[in-house]
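Moderator note: this is an archived Q&A kept for reference. The question asked for a predicted structure of one protein chain; the sequence and the answer are reproduced below.
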Amino acid sequence: MTGGGHHLYEFNVGKSPRDRSRLYVFSGGFGPIKDSCGDPEVTTIDSLGLQEGQHFGYIFDMGDYWPHELEVKAIEQGPLKGNYPTLIEKVGPSPPQYADVEEEEEEGEDE
C-alpha cells in the first residue's frame, strides 16, 4: 500500500475519502502520528476490506498537500493481466513536484 517515496503521505479509508477514522500514515520514520494510525508500509490492500464502488482518499506530500480520491472499480483474484494500478481518469494538468528545480532547468536551457 506504499505510495509516497520519501514524502509523508496518508490513506483515508473511512466512510468517505476525507474521513480520517481509518487512517494509514507514512511518517517518514518520525514515529507514529497517533497510535490509532495504521502503517501503509506493511498494510496490504486486501486486508482493508474494500468494496467495489468504494471511494477512499490518498494525500501525497503532507507539506504541499496533494489530495487524491480513489475508487475501487473491481476486486478480482490475481494475478491480473496488464499494468496495475491503472489510472482511470485525470482532472487537469499535473503540477511539477519540484517547481523551483524544474524552473532552473528550463532557464539553463535558454542560455
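Archived answer notes: Residues 9-82 form one domain.
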